[in-house]
Write a structure and sequence with these properties.
The complex is a heterodimer of chains A (264) and B (252).
Chain A lengths: L2 E10 L7 E11 L4 E5 L6 H9 L6 E6 L2 E2 L7 E4 L11 H6 L8 H14 L15 H14 L4 E5 L7 H18 L2 E6 L2 H7 L2 E6 L4 E7 L11 H28 L6
Parallel strand pairs in A: 3-8, 3-9, 6-7, 7-8
Antiparallel strand pairs in A: 1-2, 1-4, 4-5, 9-10
Helix pairs in contact in A: 3-4, 6-7
Chain B lengths: L2 H24 L10 H13 L2 H33 L1 H15 L6 H9 L3 H25 L3 H9 L4 H12 L1 H24 L6 H10 L3 H33 L4
Helix pairs in contact in B: 2-11, 3-4, 3-6, 3-9, 3-10, 4-6, 5-6, 6-9, 9-10, 9-11, 10-11
Classes of the chains: A alpha/beta (264), B mainly alpha (252).
Family (chain B): Belongs to the binding-protein-dependent transport system permease family.
Pfam families (chain B): BPD_transp_1 (PF00528)
Protein name (chain B): ABC transporter permease
Chain lengths: 264, 252
Amino acid sequence: MFLEFEDTGKRFGEATENEFEVFKGVNISIENNQFVSILGPSGCGKSTLLSMVAGLEDTSEGTIKLEGQEITGPDPERGMVFQQPSLFPWLTVRENVMFPLKKKRSKKEAEARAEHFLKMVHLSSSSSRYTYELSGGMQQRVAIARALAMDPKVLLMDEPFGALDEQTRHILHRELLSIWEETRKTILFVTHSIQEAIKLSDRVIVMGTRPGRIIADFSIDVPRPRARDDENVIGWEKHVMELLEKEIDKVLKEELDNESVSYN
Amino acid sequence: MNLSLITKRIVFLVVVAGIWQGIYALNIFEDIIFPSPLTVVSSLYEGFADGDLVTALGASFRHLFSGLVLAILFGTVLGVLLGKSREADETAGMYLVALQSIPSIVWVPLAIMIFGFSEAAVVFVVVLGGTFVMALNVRSAIRSVPPHLLRAARTMGVSGVSQFFRVEIPASVPYFMSGLRLAWAFSWRALMAGELLSNGPGLGYSLRYAQDYARMDQVIGIIIIIGVIGAVVDQLVFSKLEKNVMKRWGIL
């Protein structure tokens, strides 16, 4: 298997009294070249799980393996796009994309690579601009180009379009799919939007909360591009919505209880 | 800056000078403590023409430059140390705040006892005036590097020393610039305190010299020079620099 979670678990805190278990016993096998979404309500640990693949968080239990190699820390073989574009404001768009390539490739090669991926995200005309001159959607496209420029084996995306407006999000969905079709990178995409997950992915892994765990795992075999009003798409959305409703209620109830507001 | 703004400011200045001239013309105060605006201007002109003020200005800028460069150097090293090491900050951080709160004129007796009435004493006071504020700002600069930038860098295989140089240092530039502006402002004040009590040369020394000879026109003239230099350097150099950086870094 390409990417393999074996009994993966995560706890925060060291002492037993304030220990908090995010999830445990996660077993997932992901094939190469697939577009996989991890979908779940806030607090289910989906972002934590992704950070563990990135190597930014340790695994408390079990392992995560990429091509048989256990993940122990960050590595350019796993590129990540965050919800915030996290670009470096002191660099131009081109220099941002070249950032991970410095010392690994010659300057000329890095420049050519940056131009190639900026073209892929339709930003070649902005390559000399600074990030403050770009809109949120453009910044996120630069972040995608930057991650792709490292030629990672897997592209990790943590709610990358969560902060964007509806219109921009749709454009970026289309762009991401065409990039994926061109590069065939394995994509692990974290989102809380059912629509987004079903629109984009080959496979949707649904997580529940308290405790975090996998509650469902679907292959979405609707041909792309998937229209919003496609019957199959709507069917899937309804199905997943029903599954998640219970989980979202659980979160809401707990939050309201914490506020000591009577719910009944 | 638009024309009407400049006009307004000039008109304001003319009005102030007019009121000043008016009070002078009323002859309420003796000339020796209340010179006319024209006397002040002509004493300034004389000072520059015979080179006295030019020498004083040159000396002041020499003290300021060497003091400020050292203050920036020491302050940056100290600030990076405190910003990077929790241990160092917990141990020494609060003393830095205490030192920062000491007015620079307080250091003058200490400086004179160590260095005597020399230019080194003045530079010493300038260094102390700028170092602590610089260190405090560099400390915040290092601390306020957005964590998401560090995480992003790590996923691109950039960590440790190379992360410090390629991410933390450039990301701290905006606060570093604020530190620079404050260090300049504090050093400028410290410089005047130091020079007032020194044996010259320097603008502060010329000021006290003028006082000793009861030359109110020169006293006012030099105060005007000190104010103008302070404002011009702040507005034309440091504020501009800071604003440009803030804009580029997406903070403004």
